[in-house]
Amino acid sequence: MLPNEMPTRVLDVGVRDEDPIRLHEPVGSSIRYMCLSYCWGGAKFLKTTRANYDKHKQEIRLDELPQLFQDAVRVTRSLGVRYLWIDALCIIQDDINLTDWKRESVRMASVFQNSYLTISATRAPSPHSSLFAKMETTQVGPVMVRKILHAPPIRMREGMEGTEWASNFPLFRRGWAFQERMLSPRVVHFGPHEIEWDCMKRRACQCIPDTEEDIPASFLWGVGTGLDLTATLLEISSIKQRGTLDRVCARIPFGIPLKPSEFLHMKKTDDRLAIAKVWHTTVTNFSPLELTDKSDRLAAISGMAEAMQRNTSNWQYLAGLWKETLLLDLCWHTSPYSRIDKDDRRQPTWSWAFLDGRAFMPIAEWADIDDAGWKLQWEEYAKVVDASCTLATHSSTGLVLDGCLELRCRLIPFDHSLHQMLRDFTFLDEYGSCCCEAQERLYFVPVGSFTYKKSSRHLGLILERIGEDKSSDMVRLGAVVIPIGKISRTRFDGFRSRSHDEQAATHAFRAFKEATGNEMVKIRIF
C-alpha cells in the first residue's frame, strides 16, 4: 500500500548500480520510499544547499556521498526500492532564515511514519562510517536450551556493559532518532554484531531469524541489564525487568518501557491518566538524548505529539505539556545531572523542553506497572484558568517563543520554616539556584497528589515572583516531590542520591497538607 502523504523531495537512486542518483520532487504522485536514520557529526559531508540544488536535481555522483549514504543507496536498490529519503540531501541546509528546514522539520515525523522501511545506522557514529560491521567470527553466539517437558524455551547470550552501550549504539543517544524509530512502521537496525528487524508484528535478528516468539529487546542486544552468559538464563516468554524496554527500537540507557504501538495504534480514550502515562514515559526517555541544537527539542518530538493529538480528540499542546493534564505535567523534576543554565533560561519556564538533561515526569516511574491495581488516583489542589503559547511556526507542536499559564492555587510564602521541611524534597531547575536562605519573593504551590495502593506522591512547585512586590506574575524555579510509602520511595529516582528518611517525608507531607487548606488566589506563570 502506497502512502497518501509524500516527502517534498526524495533521492531517486534507480534500480541498478550504474543508475544515476538525483534529487526528485514527487509532486502529485504516491511512491514507495525508504528512510535513513543516522548520526550527524564528524568531518564535512555532501549536503543539499541553494548553490547545488539545481545540480542535485540533475545528478549526484555516488562517489561524492559519504560512505554511510553510499551503503544506504546500495541497500535501497538491493530491496528493489527506487526512492530514498536522507535529510541532509532532501532538505536545503542553508536556506534563508532556515525556511526550508523549518517547513520540513515539522513534516519529518510523517516522512518516517509513511516510509516503506527505515534503515537505522545504529552503530555508525557519523556519515563517514560504514553501515556494515565487520563480524567477529570467534565471538560466542547465543545458546538455546530446548524445552524440557512443559517449560518454555530458554536462551542465553553474553551481556554488554553500560560503557559498551554508549560506544556501540551511538544513534540511540540522538534526540532526532528517537521519534524516527518510534514512528517508523518497519526498522532494520545495522548493529555492531548483527542486523536486527523490528516491525509492528514481530522482531527477529540474525542469530534467531526464524523464531515464532517475540524476542525481548534485552536478549537481542544484551544491553546493560545484567544479562551474563555465565550467570543468566532468559526465559523468552516471561522476561519482565524494570529498566528493560519492551522493544529495541525504543531502548535507551536506563530507559522506561515504551512501545511504538502506543503511538501508531493507540486507541482513542478519555482516560487522562492512561494518556499521561504514555506521554510522561515518552518525555522521560527522550529528554536526556543529545541534540546538536538544543532549541530543536520540541521539533524533535513534535511528530509524537501529533500522534498523541490524533488519539485524544485534539488535546491542546503547550510546549511539551498538555492542557488537559496540565497540573500533572507541570510537576516534572530534574535529576542531579540535569539543570538549566541561568544564562540560557527562556520562557516558558514551566516547560521541561528548556532543561539540559533528563526531566522526570510524575507517572513515568510507574509505567511498568501492568496489573489490575495499576489505576492511579489523582487529586488536584489547583485549577487551570487559562494557558497559551506563542508559536514560532504554524505548527502547534513545534517551537514556541513564550507562554503563559493562569492558575487558581494556594500560594504559600517559602519562608525558613517551610524550606526546612521541604528542602530534601525540592528539585531546582537552574544551575547555581539556591533557596537555602528563605527569600521573600519565593512561594510554594501545592499542585496535586496521586496514590497507588498504600503509597502516594505529593507534588508542588517552587515559584519566584517577578515585577512589583504585589505582582501575581511568577516564573518556575523548581518542583517539590514528597514520596510516602515504601513503593513510592523505592521508585522515586530523585531519592537515589538522597536520604530515604521516612520521618522527614512525614513532616514534609504534613506541611504539604496544611498548605492545601489555604485560600486560593489567581497567578500567572511565564
From TrEMBL:
Residue ranges occupied by any Heterokaryon incompatibility domain in the UniProt entry: 33-180
Pfam families named in the record: HET
Protein species of origin: Chaetomium thermophilum (strain DSM 1495 / CBS 144.50 / IMI 039719)
InterPro entries: HET
Name by which UniProt lists this protein: Putative chromosome transmission fidelity protein
